[in-house]
Amino acid sequence: MDRIRELASKKAAVIFTKSSCCMCYSIKQLFYELGASPAVHELDKEARGREIELALRGLGCNPSVPAVFIGGVFVGSTTDVISLHVDGSLKQMLIDAKAIWF
Question: What's a GO cellular component annotated to this UniProt protein (predicted)?
Answer without folding.
Answer: cytoplasm
